[in-house]
Write a structure and sequence with these properties.
Radius of gyration: 18 Å
Number of strands: 14
Helix content: 10-25%
Structural class: alpha+beta
Number of helices: 4
Largest sheet: 10 strands, antiparallel
Distance between the termini: 23 Å
Strand content: 25-35%
Order of helices and strands: HHEEEEEEEHEEEEEEHE
Length: 237
């Protein structure tokens, strides 16, 4: 999961421009929603506490609502993961990556049996509030990358649609980076970053929400290490 696909940015275009409401319009929208409490008008309630740059906002890790368990995903890998990139890679730690957002590739496709999700999906993943996070997330949202997960071994690969995203000419460009996992004990993994098959880094991964939607023994460790405030993409953008 995580951030290693940014290393191959030269392989894809990043010329997409994000469209955001002006601060005045966002204030008007939020005030109107609060006053009227009309779900049909205001859409999904946001967990955002404070607006940040690049489409991000801060949210409370302890009160965040995760997706319900996705029964399409095998139980031994289903759940929510903390990707701990460590102190030497600021901006690349994901306090959560919610695999319950994954959806299967169509039957009969060459990727049948695997699952995917757009990396810029609000709520799918979060980041620490450090300076290095912002340029990375900005790049991620512009290039239109998706994570492709093999549930048999929890290996993640990536592809990107760049300027073709959402058009009738949509084309997915495979990226030469992969992230295999090695399970070392229940709910604990060693993950690697491989570029063109060469291992360039490794880090820890922990399942913090299990296949039944329950917190694991690593939840408290996560909160202790990253704190309660984390960044996520704003679901009202």
């Amino acid at each position: 999961f995580g951030g290693w696909k940014v290393w191959v940015s030269s392989f894809v275009s990043s010329s997409i421009t994000s469209v955001r409401l002006s601060p005045a319009m966002r204030l008007f929208h939020g005030t109107l929603c609060a006053a009227l409490a009309v779900t049909a008008l205001c859409g999904k309630n946001s967990e955002c506490i404070e607006d940040k740059d690049d489409g991000l906002c801060s949210t409370n890790l302890e009160t965040h609502t995760f997706q319900p368990p996705n029964e399409l995903i095998p139980a031994d890998v289903r759940g929510v993961y903390w990707i701990d990139a460590g102190p030497d890679a600021p901006g690349y730690t994901n306090p959560w990556v919610d695999l319950n957002f994954l959806q299967p590739f169509p039957e009969g496709s060459r990727k049948e049996g695997k699952f995917w999700v757009m990396d810029r999906t609000p709520g799918y993943q979060s980041w620490e509030d450090v300076a290095e996070t912002y340029p990375y997330v900005s790049h991620l949202t512009k290039m239109g990358s998706r994570s492709e997960v093999d549930p048999s071994d929890l290996t993640v690969t990536w592809s990107a649609c760049t300027v073709t995203c959402g058009t009738k000419y949509e084309v997915w460009i495979p990226m030469p980076v992969s992230s295999p996992s090695q399970k070392v004990r229940p709910n604990e993994y060693i993950r690697q970053a491989k570029v063109f098959g060469i291992t360039v880094s490794s880090w820890k991964g922990y399942r913090i929400i299990d296949e039944n939607g329950e917190k694991t023994e690593f939840w408290d460790k996560l909160v202790e290490q990253v704190g309660e405030r984390v960044l996520m993409l704003d679901d009202t953008e």
